[in-house]
C-alpha cells in the first residue's frame, strides 16, 4: 500500500525538486517517514541526505498535533457537518492505544518506531494528545520512535535492495 501511494505521489509531484518531494511525502499522514524513505530510495537520493529530509518532514507536524489537535477536535465536534467524522477518527485512533496506555513512554516509542500499517508519528501524536500525555513526555518518545523507524526503514529501503543487488 505504501509503495502504491508513494508511486502515485511521485507522479503527481513530478517536476518538483526530488528533495522537496520526499519532504512533502514525509509530512503526509499514513506515508510519513517510511513513505519518504521508500520514495528517496526509488529516486536514488543518497541515504545520508534522505534521512535528514524525511526525519524533519515527519517531525514538523508533531508539535502542532500534540498541542492543538484536542482543542481543534473539540471545536469541530461542535459542528454538525464534521462531528461524526471527528468522533470516528478519535475512535479509530483510540482503538490502537492499548500499548500506549499500558506502557506510556515506551509504548509510544514502540508504536511510532515499529513501521506497521496504522502506526507512526501522526497516529502516535493523536493518541498521545487524546490520552492527555504531556508534551514533555510525548514529544521525546515520538522522536525516539522516529529514530527507530528511520533505522528500520533505511535497512529495508536502502540495505535490502543493496544486498539483493550484490548477491
TrEMBL record:
<feature type="transmembrane region" description="Helical">
    <location>
        <begin position="20"/>
        <end position="43"/>
    </location>
</feature>
<feature type="transmembrane region" description="Helical">
    <location>
        <begin position="105"/>
        <end position="131"/>
    </location>
</feature>
<protein>
    <submittedName>
        <fullName>Uncharacterized membrane protein</fullName>
    </submittedName>
</protein>
<keyword id="KW-0472">Membrane</keyword>
<dbReference type="Pfam" id="PF06695">
    <property type="entry name" value="Sm_multidrug_ex"/>
</dbReference>
<feature type="transmembrane region" description="Helical">
    <location>
        <begin position="138"/>
        <end position="160"/>
    </location>
</feature>
<keyword id="KW-1133">Transmembrane helix</keyword>
<dbReference type="InterPro" id="IPR009577">
    <property type="entry name" value="Sm_multidrug_ex"/>
</dbReference>
<feature type="transmembrane region" description="Helical">
    <location>
        <begin position="50"/>
        <end position="73"/>
    </location>
</feature>
<keyword id="KW-0812">Transmembrane</keyword>
Amino acid at each position: 500500500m505504501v509503495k502504491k501511494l508513494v508511486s502515485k505521489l511521485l507522479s503527481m509531484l513530478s517536476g518538483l525538486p526530488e528533495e522537496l518531494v520526499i519532504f512533502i511525502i514525509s509530512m503526509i499522514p499514513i506515508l510519513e517517514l517510511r513513505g519518504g524513505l521508500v520514495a528517496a530510495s526509488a529516486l536514488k537520493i543518497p541515504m545520508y541526505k534522505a534521512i535528514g529530509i524525511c526525519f524533519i518532514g515527519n517531525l514538523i507536524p508533531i508539535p502542532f498535533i500534540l498541542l492543538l489537535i484536542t482543542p481543534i477536535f473539540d471545536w469541530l465536534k461542535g459542528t454538525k457537518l464534521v462531528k461524526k467524522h471527528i468522533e470516528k477518527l478519535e475512535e479509530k485512533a483510540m482503538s490502537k492505544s492499548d500499548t500506549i496506555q499500558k506502557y506510556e513512554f515506551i509504548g509510544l516509542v514502540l508504536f511510532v518506531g515499529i513501521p506497521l500499517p496504522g502506526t507512526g508519528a501522526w497516529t502516535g501524536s493523536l493518541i498521545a494528545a487524546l490520552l492527555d500525555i504531556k508534551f514533555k513526555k510525548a514529544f521525546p518518545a515520538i522522536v525516539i520512535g522516529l529514530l527507530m523507524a528511520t533505522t528500520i526503514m533505511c535497512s529495508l529501503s536502502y540495505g535490502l535492495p543493496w544486498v539483493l543487488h550484490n548477491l
